[in-house]
Amino acid sequence: MPKILWMSPYSLHDITSGASIHCRAILESLQQRGFTVWSFATFVFDRPYGGNATFGDLGQLFARNPQAKLFQFDDRGIHYIYLKNQHTAEMERTVSEQNEFFERYLDVLSAYKPDLVVGYGTGMDSYTCFAEAQRRGIATVYFVMNGKHAHFTFPHLDLVLTDSHTTAQLYAEREHINCTPIGQFIEPKYVVAPERQPSFVTLVNPDFSKGLSIFAKLAKACQSTLPELKFLVVNSRSNFVAGLPYLHEPGSTVKPFTAQDFPNVLMTNATNDMRLVYARAQVLLVPSLAYESWGRIASEALLNGIPVLGSKIGGIPEAINGGGIVLEPPAHCLQDFTELPGDEEIAPWVEALKRLVSEDWSAAIANARRNVDINELSSRLATQLTTLCQQRQAAHFKPR
What we know:
By secondary structure, this protein is α/β, with parallel strands linked by helices.
């Protein structure tokens, strides 16, 4: 079976990055089907604390190994090589750090001799790493897990993969780039709670772009219309209480909410074991206001038998796949993520939530989660990547 090298400045152990979580799941599924997988990356995370669950305090880690430049370990069948860096933010990496990344990458290529280099990153070091792989006759694959790669032409790449048909269509129409949708890879044993006591209407990551304004207005409206409901917020990349003072009435500067206005909302911190969250979720909310390529948590909820209420944006309807309800967010909220919906605009969300907590959605959910069958998705991708490696090697070593 082919040997895969993941190459990216971004850490695959970042629990604050949906892209990292998904790519790691893809690689683990391929490893379980016979591929040998190595990862070469740095300690770059979407949020500074994104790697705490795996590495703890990076300052302490580096202090314990002051001379070490590379940190290597095995995790779930994948061999990880991390290059030490001074900053966890991608844009703060220095030119010398990028040069060192490329030099160490050359060492890994020579030692490991992969058949396939996969990864993402639009920096010059990633660009150069992909180019070097192709120069050596190694197949190259880029993962696109969002709609933010506008004007990037994906040079030195044999294949561009994305999760949803929605995102593939977006890049085809906007950038005239052919992306192949492969679906969302989720290993059920890591996300499905063994026992469930559904108690909360749950929101993961109360960021403005994730629909904090809709959630706040919905939770407030339910205090009178559905007073028995309790809401739970998982503070991952953003914090519910910290965001409330920025929310304002439509067309006004009035900011009506404080934390004291939400006795029906509880909070918890981010976790690398989402089974704890899904064990208590009755309904999952995905009221995003910005483009989502898929909406991984929606699929994870469905695998737990939890219906989803989400926005009709990007790949979210594809992820929910009939296992819940999708609604159009108010247009003005899409223009200003901090602007609250009006009373009439939140009414359909209240009614949808009422349906989700009172009706039987089990049959719809069972049908919806068929699009995240990891065995089918993995087998299809394994065949595709094996064929790509064979074609690339044949083309590179063809006699001239």
